[in-house]
């Protein structure tokens, strides 16, 4: 059974930074594509970033140049480094791998 546990969310002012972590048990991240999604109030869940097993990364246009997804295979953990945060980045951020989701971590960006 795969379990994904996110951490690192919080409240930050616009222009600030946060790093989200997704730790996995029951799955080996380096063999799988892992993603970060987010869901803002009243909106559908959307893809933020993906990292493939070979290391290729993909980002939604709104975060390109500001967010970086990375993987630490030794720790079986995927990270999302978020810089230059904007109020519109406010959402619950979820880690995803195959059909598995974490519980989510809240990111709130204030003016």
Brief characterization of the structure:
The protein has no helices and eleven strands.
Structural features, described:
By secondary structure, the protein is mostly beta strands. The strands form 2 sheets. Strands 2, 4, 5, 6, 9, 10 and 11 form a 7-stranded mixed β-sheet that branches. It has a 4-stranded antiparallel β-sheet with strand order 1-3-8-7, with no helix packed on it. The chain is globular, with a radius of gyration of 13 Å. The chain is built from no helices and 11 strands. A hairpin with a 5-residue loop joins strand 5 and strand 6. Helix content is 0%, strand content 53%. The relative contact order is 0.33.
List the main descriptive attributes of the protein structure presented here.
111 residues; mainly beta; 4-stranded antiparallel sheet; 53% strand
Largest sheet: 7 strands, mixed
Task: Report the helical percentage.
Answer: under 10%
Structural class: mainly beta
Q: What is the helix/strand order?
A: EEEEEEEEEEE
Mean pLDDT: 95
- Overall body shape: globular
Q: What is the helix tally?
A: 0
Beta-strand percentage?
Answer: over 45%
Spans of at least 5 consecutive residues whose pLDDT stays below 50 are: none
